[in-house]
Amino acid sequence: MADRSAEMLVDLFKTKGVVTFPDLQNALGSASRATTFRYLKRVRYLRSYNHNGRYYTYRDPALFDRFGLYSNGDIHFSCDGTLGATLKRLVRDSPAGWTQRELQELLRVRVQVLLLEAVRHDEICRERVAGFYLYLHCDPAIGKSQLQRRQERIDACQQKDGEPVGVDDAVIIQVLLALIRHPGSGPADVVRTLRGHSPPIVLEQVVEVFARYDLEDVGKKGGAMNC
Asked: Do residue 139 and residue 168 come from a single domain?
């Protein structure tokens, strides 16, 4: 096919959003794998970090949320490319570290093996806090700051006016999931999204989660991430 060009792949990405490798080959006129990869190298693209990297998408910064993530249904992409690189970046950039459960709910895939591998290679660290492991920056000073910030949040949320605040892991997970599915939502929007949840999740609980994890800007397009 004499008129092949990388623009054919760009046009395919912009039309379909997410494609498979056979889709790319077909767009180039049934090109071979080698030829398709040659043209693909000229395009800003990413492979999915789940489904064994089967899916491809155009690397458009406007698609990604403040965590550098983009999902199309159950197909997930990261501006870092791989899941391992994404985990390390999220942990290192976090103001208060991440737990395994938080990362797993955010990324919607299992992360334990990759987290432990990163710890073994001294790429990130972990500390046990309040009965769970907190993953932190491997730089001692930064890790100490993250740990202190997390402990402050835990202490602040344990009591309010002398009474325990009713915000447990289940509530936190539901709020984070609502923000992933509806980027840019405020506390009242999240409460509406979670209407009908049993037991009910009320505005005071959502506000507490927002305060604990600095979620005011979570999911807003054009946020701090540079993809």
From this structure: no
163 in the same domain as 116: no
- Which residues have a Cβ under 8 Å from the Cβ of 222 and sit 6 or more positions away? 62
Q: Do 97 and 147 touch, CB atoms closer than 8 A?
A: yes
Residues 125 and 138: their CA atoms lie apart, in Å, by: 5
Is the omega angle on the peptide bond into residue 187 within 30 degrees of 0, that is, cis?
no
Q: Are residues 93 and 147 in the same domain?
A: yes
CB of 44 closer than 8 Å to CB of 59 = yes
Report pTM. Answer: 0.72
Number of domains forming the structure of the chain: 3
CA dist., res. 53 & res. 144, Å (int): 35
Are residue 88 and residue 146 in the same domain, yes or no?
Answer: yes
pLDDT tens digits for range 75-110: 999 999 999 999 999 999 998 899 888 888 889 899
- Same domain, yes or no, for 133 and 88? yes
User: In the structure encoding, which two tokens stand for residue 50, read together?
Assistant: 């789940």
pLDDT digits (tens, 9 = 90+) for 1-14: 558 999 999 999 99
45 inside domain: yes
Residue type at 28?
Answer: L
Range of 37's domain? 6-63
The one-character DSSP state at 91 is H
Euclidean distance between CA atoms 98 and 100, whole angstroms: 7
The CATH number given to whatever domain includes residue 101 is: 1.10.10
Contact 58, 14 (CB under 8 A): yes
Does residue 222 sit within a domain?
no
